[in-house]
Amino acid sequence: MRIPHIRDYTGQRVHMVGIGGSSMSGLADMLRHKGYQVSGSDRTDSYATRRLRELGIPVIVGHSAQNVDGAALVVYSAAIDPSNPERAACDALGIPTLERAYLLGQLMEGYSRAIGVCGAHGKTTTTSMLAQVLLDTGFDPTIHIGGRLDAIGGSTRIGQGDTFLAEACEFNASFLQLRPTMAVLLNIDADHLDYYRDIEHIQETFAQFLALLPQDGLCVGCGDDERVLALMHGLRCPGVTYGFAPHNRWQPVNLVYDEAGYPTFDAALDGRVLAHVVLRVPGGFQVLNALAALAAAYAAGADMARAGQALSDFAGVHRRFELTGIVQGVRLYHDYGHNPAEMANVLSVARLQRHNRLWAVMQPHTYSRVKRLFGDYIHCCDAADEVLITDIYAAREKDPGDIHSTMLVDRIAATGKSVHYTPTFDDTEAYLRAHWQPGDLVLTMGCGDINLLNEQLQAHENQA
């Protein structure tokens, strides 16, 4: 079956199913900039869909066959099942369809420097760091990020230069549709096990992504990750490692943290200091993200003194340990982390912030992830004083009937942790308001719609 190419639909209407997703919403804006007539649909309203409407892109809440009427091409995300009425209507009407990853790969074609940032954790933040460095050191890149970065006014930027920077997601092996000339590989961990067989399958797929690099390409990889390091040894193109371990070429030296976990360090290549960085985002994992961005920027020819300053100016990405407001003297944070390792990382950072009690509000994401990583979920909130768990966010999945949030609550409670099941946002808000105290810190975690709880809490406070 022939895969349609976006260039064949210039000026025509492209309808996007699941347009509110972090990547899809950015691609919609990119197509709008390029002169396409863009429309879309999503199952729920959100900040992303509201922003798209403000840009002049019509978005319908709810999926219906009639939404695709008149579309020349329909783009869908990997989370959209073939049984979706809009995809089914395309099959019946003969409307060509294109999966999101193919669209991103097609938009990257023709750039002499195409950078794909991949890994199980930290992709959005590292891509955003590199985006800010490239912008502040005189590049004019085209950028596609799976999150919102204030420096580019959203998740995409159309540049006039020869560089395309993109977050390369491994979900459903979608990054294999990209054609990178440089890859930044952050880490390899067990996730998306509804698609991958096991961790070996995941590693094999990352190897396939690196095999896309041309012989004169480059791989920047975290040498502290054994699986990443193993793949670096099999490259057909040059590679450079970064990390804390002494065998890495890029390392942080003179590294210190303040009392809230914000790092200051010098970035050194083969022992030679090239940049000084004072990060405004906390945590040791952010040092690694910053090193990855610096190593990629150096390979692209960026001025390192200016690159270090750009990272010092980097204020973070929305939905990544983001302070969303203060309600009744309680600071509200949100983080997109949904894998147990990500949640443990962000809670370790939250623990360092000034607080009385630390509340972790977890929205487990997908039944398959909770089942496969159940044991890891038991202790991912150990750093919190109080834990609230909502219902599982199904996303693309149907409830199999054999996994439920109460099972997590029971197992966590057995460890002695104070944990409660609050299935809905209303339940969670009621419990928080009944038990929190001024000086507490609440961190909501998940990549579903748990961020809307922060908005709900703030809205009710503003109405009071």
Record the SSE blueprint.
Blueprint: E1 13-17, H1 22-33, E2 37-42, H2 47-54, E3 59-61, E4 73-76, H3 85-93, E5 97-99, H4 100-108, E6 113-118, H5 123-136, E7 142-149, E8 154-157, E9 163-167, E10 182-185, H6 199-210, E11 218-222, H7 226-232, E12 239-242, E13 250-257, E14 263-269, E15 272-278, H8 284-300, H9 304-313, E16 322-327, E17 330-335, H10 340-352, E18 358-362, H11 367-372, H12 374-377, E19 386-389, H13 405-413, E20 419-421, H14 425-435, E21 441-445, H15 451-463
Short description:
Helices cover 33% and strands 23% of the residues. With 464 residues, the protein is an alpha/beta fold.
Structure, explained:
The chain is α/β, with parallel strands linked by helices. It has three domains: 6-99, NAD(P)-binding Rossmann-like Domain (Rossmann fold); 110-313, Mur-like, catalytic domain (UDP-N-acetylmuramoyl-L-alanine:D-glutamate ligase); 322-463, Alpha-Beta Complex (Protein-Tyrosine Phosphatase, Chain A), CATH 3.90.190. The chain is built from 15 helices and 21 strands. The chain has helices at 22-33, 47-54, 85-93, 100-108, 123-136, 199-210, 226-232, 284-300, 304-313, 340-352, 367-372, 374-377, 405-413, 425-435, 451-463; strands spanning 13-17, 37-42, 59-61, 73-76, 97-99, 113-118, 142-149, 154-157, 163-167, 182-185, 218-222, 239-242, 250-257, 263-269, 272-278, 322-327, 330-335, 358-362, 386-389, 419-421, 441-445. The protein has a seven-stranded mixed sheet, sandwiched between helices. A six-stranded mixed sheet has the order 16-17-21-18-19-20, sandwiched between helices. Helix 7 links the parallel strand 11 (218-222) and strand 12. Helix 5 packs across helix 8 and helix 14 packs across helix 15 (451-463). The longest helix has 17 residues, at 284-300. It is globular. The termini are far apart.
